[in-house]
């Protein structure tokens, strides 16, 4: 089973428990932008929707908060996390370190079956882009990056990347359109060719540039001062 944009730490043997199922549904809804950054997650409404107790909802929300997909504030409840510009830049910096840094080991371990899986994900991503299924394209793009890193054989780094990719989805929702900031599958095809050729140097250069391009597609310019221009407002009224 391919690891992609799915709960970072699925607990085998507990998939059928209520809190695990609620967590998984909320996780997916967040990374697919069905629940937007900043959206409130009231316990009452979630309890009614999932037909579970408040305890189950709280467990799921607390787990998502640990993964920084949800923000919980005293007396204000839970909301979908809304990454700041600084956080967004940090996430892409971390992805650079991990995804570029592991490519030597990826190439050392990669097998024809891995190449075939990566090609299939890229094919599905291309189809999602063709029909403009933004949510599926984002999910498959993340799945490609996570599956690639998993070939290095470091489960801890792979789990960490799942979290980074999930938070990248929130960043895309806040700072750019899902379409413009999404990875392009034809460039993923270019990487696959480099991996198949065993060209580590070019693969690293490609990955570094690729992540920079994804980040640059986002509008992370500083927000303007929120204080209104009173002189302009009132002069226009007088005019």
From TrEMBL:
<dbReference type="GO" id="GO:0003700">
    <property type="term" value="F:DNA-binding transcription factor activity"/>
</dbReference>
<keyword id="KW-0805">Transcription regulation</keyword>
<dbReference type="InterPro" id="IPR036390">
    <property type="entry name" value="WH_DNA-bd_sf"/>
</dbReference>
<dbReference type="InterPro" id="IPR011711">
    <property type="entry name" value="GntR_C"/>
</dbReference>
<dbReference type="InterPro" id="IPR008920">
    <property type="entry name" value="TF_FadR/GntR_C"/>
</dbReference>
<dbReference type="InterPro" id="IPR000524">
    <property type="entry name" value="Tscrpt_reg_HTH_GntR"/>
</dbReference>
<feature type="domain" description="HTH gntR-type">
    <location>
        <begin position="16"/>
        <end position="83"/>
    </location>
</feature>
<protein>
    <submittedName>
        <fullName>Transcriptional regulator, GntR family</fullName>
    </submittedName>
</protein>
<dbReference type="Pfam" id="PF07729">
    <property type="entry name" value="FCD"/>
</dbReference>
<dbReference type="InterPro" id="IPR036388">
    <property type="entry name" value="WH-like_DNA-bd_sf"/>
</dbReference>
<keyword id="KW-0804">Transcription</keyword>
<feature type="region of interest" description="Disordered">
    <location>
        <begin position="218"/>
        <end position="239"/>
    </location>
</feature>
<dbReference type="GO" id="GO:0003677">
    <property type="term" value="F:DNA binding"/>
</dbReference>
<feature type="compositionally biased region" description="Basic and acidic residues">
    <location>
        <begin position="228"/>
        <end position="239"/>
    </location>
</feature>
<keyword id="KW-0238">DNA-binding</keyword>
<dbReference type="Pfam" id="PF00392">
    <property type="entry name" value="GntR"/>
</dbReference>
């Amino acid at each position: 089973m391919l690891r992609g944009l799915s709960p970072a730490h699925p607990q085998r043997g507990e998939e059928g428990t209520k809190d695990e199922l609620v967590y998984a549904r909320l996780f997916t809804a967040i990374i697919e932008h069905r629940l937007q950054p900043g959206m409130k997650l009231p316990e009452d409404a979630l309890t009614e929707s999932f037909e579970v107790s408040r305890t189950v909802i709280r467990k799921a929300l607390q787990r998502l908060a640990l993964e920084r997909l949800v923000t919980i504030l005293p007396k204000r409840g839970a909301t979908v996390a809304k990454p700041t510009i600084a956080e967004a830049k940090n996430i892409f910096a971390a992805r650079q370190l991990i995804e570029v840094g592991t490519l030597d080991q990826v190439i050392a371990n990669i097998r024809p079956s891995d190449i075939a899986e990566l090609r299939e994900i890229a094919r599905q991503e291309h189809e999602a882009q063709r029909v403009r299924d933004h949510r599926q394209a984002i999910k498959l793009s993340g799945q490609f990056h996570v599956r690639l890193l998993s070939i290095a054989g470091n489960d801890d780094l792979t789990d960490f990347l799942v979290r980074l990719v999930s938070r990248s989805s929130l960043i895309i929702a806040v700072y750019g359109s899902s379409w413009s900031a999404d990875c392009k599958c034809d460039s993923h095809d270019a990487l696959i060719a480099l991996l198949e050729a065993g060209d580590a140097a070019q693969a690293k250069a490609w990955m570094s540039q690729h992540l920079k391009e994804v980040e640059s597609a986002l509008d992370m310019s500083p927000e303007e001062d929120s204080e209104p221009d009173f002189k302009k407002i009132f002069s226009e009224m007088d005019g």
